[in-house]
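Hi V.,

You were right to ask for the full record rather than a summary. Here it is.
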Amino acid sequence: MTAVLDVDSHEMAPLELWGELFGEEIARRVNEVGFDIHSRARANPLSVPGLVADTTPITQETVWRLKGASAPSAIDLRRRPDVLDEMGITRQLVFPTFGLFALILVNDPNAHAWLGFDPGRVDGRELGRMAVAAHNDWAADITRSTSDRVRPVGIVLTDTSVEDMVRQARSMLERGIRALMIPANVPPAGTSPANPDLDPFWRFAAEADVPVTIHLGTDFGFLASGAWSKGVEVFHPSDKSTVELPIEPYRATTIHFCAENLISTMVLGGVFERHPSLRFGAIELAAGWVGPLAERLDCWAEGQFRSRLDGTLSMRPSEYLARNVRVTPFYFEPIARYFERHRDLSSVYCYSTDYPHVEGGKDSRALQEAALAQAPDGARERFFATNGELLLPA
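Predicted structure:
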């Protein structure tokens, strides 16, 4: 295998160091709010008092088994190329932790309850937008300083016009950013992702060869009510809740709802037909749902709605998924079974470490190599290398 590609990792700077990385002004504003976040993210804490620098030695033990802000290069992404060398990884996408906090402030109507602040005293949306801008400045700097082996995503805010979405994306690419992230929980620019009005954004991304991604943690508020999980919230002292994923049975088994909704719309509405080179990733949202989704879309498109979709789609929906979409299974999923059951989707499944978040598991590469031992021929190469090229082009 010539190149291992990792399509999901994170920065994980603790709140105490946000000023150093993202600017003293945003850190001051955050500290003034008094967020009650210490109890919100027990496994991937946003606050780590006493941690003042990124100095953990880079060894096989620390890169594969140490989790959290003390892992090497969790804070200083300029050290990340050395971490990748230790892991045997060629290129890596980096998703936000600080920036995810910012997106929750902008897009989640219940952000005040989750992050613990008084909405009457604090304009969470305004603070979130300021934090997104700080993340994007940092992402551009890191991409430049690591010869783009390490590629933090730029966050495109979608609670605006299509023209402004394009402006944001163009600005990021001009500064060197090579991947984009949009929130999954709200209609972009207030409309369907498949609305031709949104085509200028998809066209820009496709022509620029820049991947567009969604990620776990941007699905808050997708369901109008939070009551669905009441009675299913089984908590335990070893609970590993995070800002991304407040782990409980209902939430864990429905995290793909946003992705299915958005991708179904894009496929059936002809987004990938009109923009055949568009690169799209649904990251850290599990992978077991993709095969059944493909079967369901094919069934409806070839049956009930064949004539209605005749002028919209020239291929089966599953073929657009195989060509344009990539997803990341968790380390404990039966990956070999997916390759066996859905051979026409063998291009979809990609390796990810989630480094240094706890959800990525310890020794994830070894675990997933073992899981693929009985997979069809070529699955290992596809999973660890070639499939990820859609999101990490050379």
